[in-house]
Design a protein that fits this description.
With about 290 residues, this protein is an alpha/beta fold. About 35% of the residues lie in helices and about 20% in strands. It has a domain of about 190 residues: 3-Layer(aba) Sandwich (Rossmann fold). The protein has a seven-stranded mixed β-sheet, sandwiched between helices. Helix 4 packs parallel to helix 6 and helix 8 crosses helix 11.
Length: about 290
């Protein structure tokens, strides 16, 4: 039986392609998370030569990382070409920041990074890995391309994300993606060989006048339902009426909430383990 939460990458790519022009105006939460990640990065003493912005979106983190680590080079990677085209608009600024070092743009999947082994010092990913189907594969690829003592810093969404929409939409189809628990993410980091993973959670609640405003915001940032178990075709007025009525149970002080559980994490790629070698010298037994 196929996994109803399996993500259709072609649909994800198409959604973010369409949303590229509207993304910045709607991605208020993503901007706030990026700011908080950059503040956390201030506590880490590193001087990376090669930086990968994995799931770069419209490229604002690439610019910020280029400013912070002006001695390094930035690679901006995203699954959606439309997002990379928005990122390319920032490249004149990145060029001035990085001088003669040319920033790179790659249209690729985090689960299949087109980069050499041990080629990157810092991998940054702001709310992107929730679009991966296989977290072990994604972290395995990240560990492969990171150099020894390289740093992974990321954010993603946890299981309480859009919990109101999940409840209100019912069980007939999958209407909200499956998000992975913080402890399971930590386990996946350990399986991938990362050392000293640190994870913590923060919750944000956005408020709206009505359900359609919630849906418009999700569409504007490209966060359309891409699960295999989603309803196919138009849902119709009946579903929207039921969704609207069911969502009303969450109305508080005149507003409808949309909860986002944000998981922050960072971990290091450790030195490879050295196998100990014992030397034994055998002396012949003397005759008696």
């Amino acid at each position: 039986m196929s996994d109803q939460y399996q993500i259709d990458k072609a649909r994800v790519r198409a959604s973010f392609d369409r949303a590229a022009g509207s993304y910045d105006a709607a991605a208020i939460l993503q901007q706030e998370i990026r700011t908080r990640m950059l503040e956390r990065l201030e506590l880490v003493k590193i001087a990376p030569q090669v930086i990968l912005d994995a799931g770069c979106g419209t490229g604002h983190a690439s610019v910020a990382l280029g400013k912070r680590y002006s001695g390094g080079s930035v690679i901006s990677l995203d699954l959606a070409l439309g997002m990379l085209q928005q990122t390319l608009a920032h490249y004149p600024l990145l060029k001035r920041i990085l001088g003669s070092k040319r920033p790179a743009a790659l249209c690729a999947d985090i689960e299949q990074l087109p980069l050499s082994d041990n080629s990157v010092d810092l991998i940054w990913s702001n709310v992107a890995i929730q679009w991966c189907n296989n977290l072990d594969q994604a972290f395995g690829e990240i560990a492969r391309v990171l150099r020894t003592d390289g740093l992974l810093m990321f954010s993603t969404f946890g299981p309480d994300t859009l919990k109101e929409l999940r409840v209100a939409s019912g069980n007939e189809h999958v209407h909200v993606s499956r998000f992975i628990d913080m402890h399971d993410i930590g386990d996946a980091l350990v399986r991938a060989g990362f050392a000293d993973p640190v994870l913590d959670v923060e919750r944000f609640v956005l408020t709206y006048d009505d359900v359609m405003a919630v849906m418009r915001d999700l569409k504007a940032i490209g966060a359309n339902n891409a699960a295999a178990g989603r309803a196919r075709g138009l849902l119709g007025r009946g579903f929207l009426a039921r969704l609207t009525a069911a969502y009303e149970q969450f109305r508080h002080e005149g507003k409808l909430p949309a909860t986002y559980e944000v998981i922050y994490g960072h971990a290091w790629k450790p030195q490879p383990k050295q196998l100990g070698v014992a030397t034994v010298t055998l002396h012949p037994r003397r005759p008696r």
